[in-house]
Amino acid sequence: MKQTIIVGVTSSIATYKSVQLVSDLLKKGYDVEVIMSKNATQFVTPLTFSSLTKHKTYVETFDREVDYSVEHISLAKRASAFIIAPATANVIAKVAHGICDDMLTTTFLASHCPKLIAPAMNTQMLNNLITKDNIAKCKQYGMSIVNSECGLLACGDIGDGKLATIPHLIEALEEALTIDKPLLNKKVCISAGPTREELDPVRYISNYSSGKMGYALARTARNMGADVTLVSGPSELDAPYGVHMIPVHTTKEMFDACDQVFDTTDYFISAAAPADFKALKKEVHKIKKDKNTNFTTIELEKNIDILKTLGSRKTTQKICGFAAETNNVLLHAINKYKDKNCDILVMNDVSKPGAGFNVDTNIISILSSTGKVDYDIMSKKELSTIILNSLINS
Ligand code: CTP
To answer: How confident is the model at residue 333 (pLDDT cuts 50, 70, 90)?
Structure first.
């Protein structure tokens, strides 16, 4: 059965963005109910939402077309999650104090599902101590705040108060909808993506890694309750919501970032493809082709092996390594599993269609102390749950 999400919409210039939020949630297969504050209807009409959701859009408590006295209770009971986006200073003040004077606030108070609030307002209003206090109160009552972002606001100011992006709102909802939290109070460090080693100011050595597997793992670990640090090489992917991102370029920088958190981390997942070599000497100026008529020899030196170095220092941490191979897959993978002191190792043949770099799927096997388990082709999102569960149980 589809999960029902209630989207509460209040009056802000960002109100139009909740149309996209509703549309994207529907595309993801959720059943969406919309409740608007009366003032929000000045910005977007209820018909817009009804046309998308195929449900009546609720506005007033005393709406005679529905049996209002039971409707807000039945909606509240059906909801798997309730998000108010955008949430004005006014609605935040109301829900922080249990005021329910319309359909939105009444249903919000009656709901027992995870509740999220995504503020959107002018910076001065957001920074007002009363608003800050109200937001803190909402948190104390167990509501999740999807923090606003900095940017150009409708009033012309540049500052905090911009509604979180739609992908972030959806990620926050997915986190709230994940009931099973086996990683609650656990710290997870994940390395992801490629690294780059500069040859001169315009050229570098790198590889095809996109970061997709590492980013999927970061999102799933966050949904499972973990405090996640994602150490990422250059990637075009959007930073996951609610994850501590450390952007790096070189393998040395990636090592330093992982090393800093390693001692306090519970799980270390080495999903990155760090460049194994760097130029012995990085040229200060661009290497010119006319001076090197035929071929330029670039002397390389080996980079640090992050996983192996940290694996050798392991105390209580559980470690997951990866082995991306093109031949003798099992043999190479077993060697890496032992050599790098892993608890589990995810191996895959990157030459297979649907596996490896820059695709949304992968075909993996997991090595652990109990042997090898093979998996069918799956999305990296689905695989991230399998990998995390097998690391937890290793
Ligand atoms: N790894 C690492 N630091 C490196 C190279 C690799 O931490 N400098 C990690 C990867 O994140 C992965 C594992 O080691 O978890 C295996 O990486 P892979 O590229 O498959 O193998 P390498 O150890 O680099 O060996 P080779 O390139 O010879 O296959």
So the answer is: very high
Q: 129 in a domain, yes or no?
A: yes
Ligand 1 proximity of 251 Cβ (cutoff 6 Å):
yes
Residue of 308, 332, 357 best suited for mutating to test ligand 1, as the one with most atoms within 8 Å of CB: 308
Distance from Cα 274 to the centre of ligand 1, integer Å? 7
Tell me whether residue 182 is in a domain.
Answer: no
Ligand 1 pocket, mutate which of 196, 307, 364, 365 (most atoms under 8 A from CB)? 307
CA 226 to each of CA 170, 176, 310, 333: distance values in angstroms, whole numbers, following the listed order: 18, 13, 20, 28
Supply the Cα-derived Rg of the chain in whole angstroms: 25
pLDDT digits (tens, 9 = 90+) for 55-66: 999 997 665 555
Domain for residue 380, yes or no?
A: yes
Within this chain, do residues 166 and 199 fall inside the same structural domain, yes or no?
Answer: no
If one compares 381 and 60, the residue with the highest pLDDT of the two is 381
List the domain range (segments joined by +) for residue 360. 187-392
User: Is 348 close to ligand 1, i.e. is its CB under 6 Å away?
Assistant: no
DSSP letter, residue 327: S
